[in-house]
Amino acid sequence: MAQAERSKQLFAGEQQHGLLNLGALDFSLVSHLPARIARLRRLQPHLHINVLSRDSLVLERMLIDSDLDLAITDGPIEHPLLASQKAFDERLVLLMPADVGQPDAATLAPLEFYTFSRECSFRLKVDHWLASRGLKPRMTLEMESYAAMAACVKDGCGVACVPGSLLPLILPAPGLKVVEMGEEGVSDLYFVWRRHQLSEELQTILEILARPA
């Protein structure tokens, strides 16, 4: 009951005065969300918003534990305690040195592969993509910096898997090329909240965040 009462009090009236704890994947706070969060601040100046970045599995746990009110992560989410709706188009792509061939076994064998942590469900998708093609890089490294990934790729050390929405911030850059992963790379982002707690006020916030930047 206490959590239900908090949810009722979270938003009060058209000008919202409550507290919204928002969690999102790190890259979405660089590519998808800056202008949208600014719009939300402009339209709802009395709403207090805390924004943090975490990996997808951590975001889900924080929602379930009521540490977050809303998360933006990959989905759709299938969980008895959570509900979701699509937020933004997203895809994963490979960032490769410009002078290497296509990502086949011979090309990847001498290269490093830079990818997401195991707390991120994107990692499962990447691991499956590699395994289904019998691709085995020289080593697989978790790297939580897309700028560092791009620098290592540009230097010819390896290949990186990055969200496509970051490409405008990375390219054009000499020494780099992009290889699409096709349908297997589709990784759309979703708004996620605790089931049965989508109020009209929270729906309004989702609509504000979902509008094109």
From TrEMBL:
This is HTH-type transcriptional regulator gltR. One of its GO terms (molecular function) is transcription cis-regulatory region binding. One of its GO terms (biological process) is regulation of DNA-templated transcription. The keyword DNA-binding applies. Belongs to the LysR transcriptional regulatory family. Keywords: DNA-binding, Transcription, Transcription regulation. Residues 14-210 form the LysR substrate-binding domain. CDD domains: PBP2_LTTR_substrate. Signal peptide: none annotated. InterPro entries: LysR_subst-bd. Pfam families: LysR_substrate. It comes from Serratia marcescens.
